[in-house]
Design a protein that fits this description.
There is one protein chain. It is built from five helices and five strands, in the order ααββαβββαα. The chain has 276 residues and is α+β, with helices and mostly antiparallel strands. It has a domain of 155 residues: PAS domain (Beta-Lactamase). It has a five-stranded antiparallel β-sheet with strand order 2-1-5-4-3. A hairpin with a 4-residue loop joins β1 and β2. α1 packs antiparallel against α4. The longest helix is centred in the first third of the chain and has 60 residues. The protein is rod-shaped.
Length: 276
């Protein structure tokens, strides 16, 4: 009865399973690496923005202390030139708007849901808390401005989460590309490996099978030409030795048959001579 799955089919199934397992493994590793890098890079964006706020705070302090409206306007303009910044505000210690990216807001009392907290805070704050799973529309950075121990105002800016979303999107695209390229390479390497196996294993096996059919048909002149020193090479060498021994046995049998025939002929001749 013919086997349902030959060795070649089993090898193909094994390689397909191997490709799937490697693909899943590499995809999982890439995913967690991407997730780790995504959090790291997103936090870096937050920290760089914080550093930027701290750098502008010293300029704002000078502008408030010297009541230099032009310098204050320059600071606001410089902050707004930063990519993904939505608004910039400078407040005095009472919450009055000294500088704003919208000129019409200057001189008004600061209005915000967290306004009192921002005005009274003596520490750098970021609202809301960083959560990569649920990004807000923007992050608000507020930094109190001091001269010695006296608070003279607050610098606030909001950063759109579009920048962080762009980082996440770029990482996702790189993740998909990296995974696709890796899986493609695995498939190509597996196909090449399969071809090597087919050449180095199935070719000798087919030669041995052909030899068996040739011997079955009575031809003992078949020789397998395999020079490898692995198990198949040893099998081919033993097969050639087996054929050689069969040829020897066949030759001996032929000699014996020929000898018996000659003896019969000789006996027949002797009987004929005696009868004559």
């Amino acid at each position: 009865m013919k086997n349902r799955f030959g060795l070649k089919s089993k090898l193909n199934i094994f390689i397909i399973i191997l490709i799937v397992m490697l693909g899943i493994g590499i995809t999982t590793i890439n995913y967690y690496t991407m997730k780790k890098n995504r959090i790291k890079l997103s936090k870096e964006v937050i920290m760089k923005t914080r550093d930027t706020v701290n750098n502008f705070t010293s300029l704002t302090r000078n502008a408030i202390a010297t009541r230099d409206d032009f310098l204050l306007l320059s600071v606001i303009k410089a902050i707004m030139s930063i990519k993904y910044v939505k608004h910039a505000v400078v407040l005095d210690s009472e919450g009055k708007v000294l500088g704003h990216n919208e000129i019409s807001e200057i001189g008004k009392q600061f209005r915000d849901e967290n306004g009192d907290e921002v005005i009274n805070s003596k520490e750098f704050t970021i609202q809301p808390d960083f959560n990569l799973k649920k990004l807000p529309d923007s992050y608000i950075f507020s930094n109190p401005i001091f001269i010695f121990e006296n608070k003279i105002g607050t610098l606030q800016l909001s950063l759109s989460s579009m920048g962080i979303n762009k980082i996440i999107k770029d990482l996702n695209n790189r993740f998909l590309l990296k995974t696709a390229v890796t899986i493609l390479l695995i498939i190509l390497i597996s196909m090449l490996y399969e071809k090597v196996i087919l050449v180095n294993i199935f070719r000798p096996i087919n030669m041995i099978r052909k030899g068996v059919h040739t011997i079955k048909n009575g031809n003992l002149n078949y020789h397998i030409n395999i020079r490898s020193h692995d198990e198949l090479g040893v099998m081919a060498s033993e097969f050639n030795q087996f054929i050689k021994e069969l040829k020897g046995i066949k030759s001996e049998i032929k000699k014996k048959i020929r000898k018996k025939r000659n003896m019969r002929k000789k006996k027949r001749k002797n009987r004929i001579k005696k009868a004559a």
